[in-house]
């Protein structure tokens, strides 16, 4: 990714950029940057740009072909091989793509690392391959190659594809681009055979078909011909897919590959069932669970009949699948964990209940699917909170054009409400109107029973977003929209901001959680609940951002404790760079989503995140988080 960032820096610069600029920006050695720039200069003649170097001034980029340059930058964006923690997986993919031995020098050149680094990486690569029943064969003067069953190799590639491995995605780009016809045929054949499949099952099948084509392109397979007609629906679908893929991609698909396709289809496609039956015991267990959760989180899951029926249907099929040792991959699992932390905690508890009652082991991916049902209910609840306001008064300086504009904007948020405007002289009329919500651009000279929201005379999209956000809380009270975000930032405390050096991630979490608990912010068992949540699934997310939190909301006061690591800590093959430990009261559980939304923006904005990690002050962190809603760094 560093090459991509360097290219973007050069593109955005209006003048020469010095060597020192890159050394300070990326905190690497002079030699490393010189090698990067040398590589970019070598590539320039055929990639749509010229990189000029002037002694004493630095480097300047000239665009000669925008289309070629855009393609080159896109390839750099998808090529995270220079400094990624997942390089061992990318090397495994690279070896799976080779039909013969490959030298260590070639691997080093491909991944832009030294031969010494390649040899170190190979130890991890061998361990990784063993987990898929594959091996690394070494031969003097020839190099290395991957050996093992084709099915195991495809399974590894499929797993890495679901993990969005950039090297594999880049290698499969042409296949992915031209797969629309195959997708359409698959769906049509499933419908033609009067079978059923859900979205995640469909994705499982499609990914396996894509990997089958990818593998057949590299390792030429022996084509098979039909000797007898397919005897059932699964065989008919598999044969149709084989014919289509061979025609579209000019490959041969072997009898073994065809059988694998049949197995994948059999696991994911099923007969249509008009209704899904579930036992009275399952309904009772789910009802009791939801009642307990409602008491714990002050929610209303048990009152939503549509949600309960949807959840019961999903769970009954899930239990049946898990008893057959069938589970699905969930490509959204990371995003669900980050954006819906409380909901995922509920899904963890629900999974534990299923394990205890029905003897099934629910995977993290399957827990993510369960979480989506709970999340859908919460979204409906948020929408209903907006709809609870039926009579809305808007107080303006006059009844002119600006008042009408505000009225239209407010109506866009409250489509079913009656919205009326009043001048600041019409307080009696406003009182007789009996509003259940008031927006005003100025202080009012009397008290009203309804919440009062102070706004600007001209609202922008960000203001409207803040209004919607604030009114989704159960206990919205009088406040100024200008200060709506300030509450989020007020729960950062400089007494809980630290820069640390540590080599033990769990020990550091335990120490931070204990500090919160002993300070009085975290309630009883806060530290225990944080470590319990971490034991289920790591809260280290993208680009080293960590958001640990307790599995049960138990805080006495709201707080976010921050720890910036002097050097990243490696834990479970992930690197932790900055920790945001969340402590919230039960009354403010909704705030958790707003916090994680901000942190999700931060982890996706690598430039701003690196700024925070370099500057290491609470002030810079808060400035950057406020800028995430707009503005420049």
Automatic annotation (TrEMBL):
GO molecular function per UniProt: protein-N(PI)-phosphohistidine-sugar phosphotransferase activity
Signal peptide, first to last residue: none
Pfam families given in the database record: Mga, PRD, PTS_EIIA_2
Any Gene Ontology biological process: regulation of DNA-templated transcription
Family matches, as Gene3D superfamilies: 3.40.50.2300, Mannitol-specific EII, Chain A, PRD domain, Winged helix-like DNA-binding domain superfamily/Winged helix DNA-binding domain
Keywords, sorted A to Z: Activator, Repeat, Transcription, Transcription regulation, Transferase
UniProt keyword annotation of Ribosomal protein present: no
Annotated PRD domain residues: 277-384
Coiled coil: none
Domain PTS EIIA type-2, first and last residues per copy: 489-628
Domain of life: Bacteria
Annotated InterPro entries: BglG_antiterminators (IPR050661), Mga_HTH (IPR007737), PRD (IPR011608), PRD_sf (IPR036634), PTrfase/Anion_transptr (IPR016152), PTS_EIIA_type-2_dom (IPR002178), PTS_EIIB-like_sf (IPR036095), WH-like_DNA-bd_sf (IPR036388)
SUPFAM superfamilies (UniProt xref): Phoshotransferase/anion transport protein, PTS system IIB component-like, PTS-regulatory domain, PRD
Record's keyword annotation contains Ion transport: no
Protein name as catalogued: BglG family transcriptional antiterminator
Protein source organism: Longicatena caecimuris
Lineage: Bacteria, Bacillati, Bacillota, Erysipelotrichia, Erysipelotrichales
